[in-house]
Design a protein that fits this description.
Distance between the termini: 33 Å
Strand order of the largest sheet: 6-8-7-14-15-11-9-10
Helix content: 25-40%
Strand content: 5-15%
Order of helices and strands: HHHEHEHEEEHEHEEHEHEHHHHEEEHEEH
Largest sheet: 8 strands, mixed
Structural class: alpha+beta
């Protein structure tokens, strides 16, 4: 059997699974290759923080025996994968980067992990996260700092930073992440890989959370990260759908993709004056892509946008976000937020004020926010009567230098030579999160320093498969995924 090369390690999950079925190599061969790469390169990247090689080798050997007998568990048969630390994997820790959770071992798989295992995947490790999943940098007091494999002095993003870094570095076939504040999209952009934030509610959240949340946590979704866009639809099809207890009442049937090519696609590029300042290289990459789309027959509108007040929607998002995440606060932290919320001036629209007010809101206020969100969703639905997708940035800049000295609330980020509020970047996450829309990220180029640039593709509610198809069509006309140039330094 031919030796697995590094080029093989960077192939798509779909292609790797096909090669296993064809007998080109075995699950155990691929697992050992990933383990070798992790041993060599992970000390510099620090993406993979837990490995259970013993159980994984047994599972891979079993997958190979089944393949020899012509039996395949599913579309992911034999693929070795890692999973974000915050998603439960039986007999592995789910720390969330919190010291008090060290040693807390999951007793069962999260629902999404059960589904990828049922499709044949072999789970062999977990990946790094920020403390409490609350940053676009990945660092915590348990496992330390995760670095971007394209530039070790820069952030891989967060909170699925370790997941995206592991995918980019060729440590795993694919990853499963979570996203409430851009936590799939942001790392995909920084690390030059693909990611999909599904429509809210179609992928079970069971097994993701420091406390049980019923119903599922508002705004939050679980979704795939991959090197190649062709995997997004494949993986979504495996993890999406009702839980066992819900199947008696409903089934998920997402619409098939509308497009087979870029010819005839109706796309809008969000106007540059909307939202916070964005790095010129990102604006240029999106504009250049727009010209490419037009050459291939797409209809492109550069001045169209949903009929919403974007500043008000951003404030709405922060209120919803901090209300949703408040369930994980300690009683002491919650009470402190209540005290701070009472101390702000009425016209204070800063990040801290909006966040603390979001935590402190009454149930009556929460219901009013729900009405506002419904109006925003309706405006997006009207917008998508004329467009297949909206294209926009994922974040203000490509991957930025690590900044762990200052608390998040005090950080600034350099955008075109101008210091900007680090937290203003939540604007780009909220666009799709407030109305619960699907959003994919696909790499479309590099900046002058060689840092990846990704673009966000937002589509109508439940058009997840079409969004994934558009990502694949765009990927075919861009530089797409490029492996990082890792070194022992």
């Amino acid at each position: 059997m031919p030796k697995i090369t590094d080029a093989t390690a960077f192939a798509s999950a779909r292609r790797l699974a096909r090669r296993i079925r064809q007998g080109k190599f075995g699950s155990r061969d691929l697992l050992e290759h990933y383990l070798e790469r992790i041993e060599r390169w992970n000390p510099a990247v620090n993406a993979v923080v837990h490995i259970d090689a013993g159980r994984a080798r047994l599972a891979a050997d079993r997958a190979d025996q089944e393949a020899r007998e012509g039996r395949y568990r599913g579309q992911l048969h034999g693929l070795p994968i890692t999973v974000k630390d915050a998603i439960d994997v039986a007999d592995m820790c789910s720390t969330w980067g919190l010291p008090e959770r060290v040693g807390i071992v999951a007793t069962q798989d999260a629902e999404v992990v059960r589904r990828v295992r049922a499709a044949g995947a072999v789970v062999f490790g977990k990946t790094n996260v920020p403390t409490g999943l609350a940053d676009w940098q990945t660092d915590n007091p348990i496992f330390g700092r995760c670095n971007n494999p394209h530039a070790l002095d820069r952030s891989p993003g967060g909170s699925s930073g370790g997941a995206a870094a592991a995918v980019a570095a060729g440590f795993t076939a694919f990853e499963i992440g979570s996203d409430i504040g851009g936590s799939i999209r942001n790392p995909a952009h920084y690390c030059g890989v693909c990611g999909l934030k599904p429509s809210y509610g179609i992928v079970p959240q069971d097994g993701h959370g420091t406390v049980r949340s019923h119903p599922a946590q508002d705004l939050n979704v679980l979704g795939p990260l991959s090197r190649h866009a062709e995997d997004l639809d494949l993986l979504l099809g495996i993890i999406a759908g009702p839980t066992a207890g819900e199947r008696m009442a409903w089934q998920l049937s997402l619409p098939s993709p509308r497009l087979s090519s870029l010819d005839g696609m109706r796309a809008a590029i969000l106007p540059r004056y909307v939202g916070p300042l964005v790095d010129e290289a990102i604006d240029a990459a999106i504009a250049h892509l727009g010209g490419t789309l037009q050459r291939y027959g797409a209809f492109l509108a550069t001045g169209a946008a949903p009929a919403i007040n974007f500043d008000e929607v951003h404030a709405l998002y922060l209120s919803l976000l901090r209300g949703a995440t408040s369930v994980g606060l300690s009683d002491q932290a919650f009470e402190a937020a209540l005290v701070r919320a009472r101390g702000y001036e009425a016209d204070d629209k800063g990040y801290r004020a909006l966040s603390d007010r979001g935590v402190a809101r009454s149930h009556r206020d929460w219901l009013r926010l729900g009405a506002s969100r419904h109006a925003v969703a309706a405006a997006w639905a009207r917008f998508f009567e004329d467009f297949d997708c909206l294209l926009c940035p994922v974040a203000a800049t490509p991957a930025f230098p690590h900044d762990l000295e200052r608390p998040r609330e005090e950080r600034l980020i350099d955008v075109n030579g101008t210091p900007q509020d680090y937290n203003a970047q939540l604007f780009w996450a909220g666009l799709a999160s407030v109305p619960g829309l699907p959003a994919a990220v696909v790499p479309i180029g590099r900046d002058a320093e060689g840092r990846p640039i990704g673009m966000q593709i937002i589509g109508p509610l439940y058009s997840d498969r079409s969004v994934a198809r558009i990502a694949r069509l765009i990927e075919e006309k861009t530089r797409a995924f490029e492996p990082p140039n890792l070194s022992n330094g």
